[in-house]
Specification:
Layout: H1 8-15, H2 22-41, H3 55-62, E1 72-76, H4 79-87, H5 99-105, E2 112-116, H6 121-139
Helix pairs in contact: 2-3
């Protein structure tokens, strides 16, 4: 989970209800890119859950990857549903008050595979697998 890669200062900032700005995110994105490269070198498939909200963040995470080598999945749901689920989390440093800034920052671009999140976790996971399979076949 990319939350584990935030600095203590960034976590404190979010805990205090202050949204991160690009300058807060650049070092985090660099740490995430290094992690992508480390895990990729192992040859195992992997998933990194993170809020790559802007296209430029996704570009940073791609590094020099070939098109389609790194896929981005948008867990797509209404503000109300996301707020409900966030409200059920315990012990997370990001308060519900930051949801609107996250949604305002989100840039929906063609590189995002949008998967609806109205159903349960198993159906969401299956939707992701199906979308990735379809996308992989299109790039072959």
């Amino acid at each position: 989970d990319a939350d584990d890669f935030h600095s203590a200062a960034a976590k404190d900032k979010m805990r205090a209800g202050t949204p991160l700005v690009d300058e807060d995110r650049w070092p985090w994105l660099e740490r995430l890119r290094r992690r992508i490269e480390e895990v990729r070198a192992s040859g195992r498939p992997y998933v990194l859950a993170c809020s790559a909200l802007k296209a430029v963040y996704r570009d940073r995470l791609r590094g020099g990857d070939a098109p389609g080598e790194l896929q981005f999945v948008l867990l797509d749901g209404s503000r109300e549903l996301i707020a409900e689920r966030m409200g059920k989390r315990e012990g997370h440093y990001m308060p519900l008050s930051l949801l609107d800034s996250q949604l305002a920052t989100l840039e929906r671009t063609d590189d995002l595979l949008a998967v609806p999140i109205e159903s349960g976790i198993e159906a969401i996971a299956q939707g992701i697998v199906e979308r990735l399979a379809t996308t992989s076949q299109a790039h072959v």
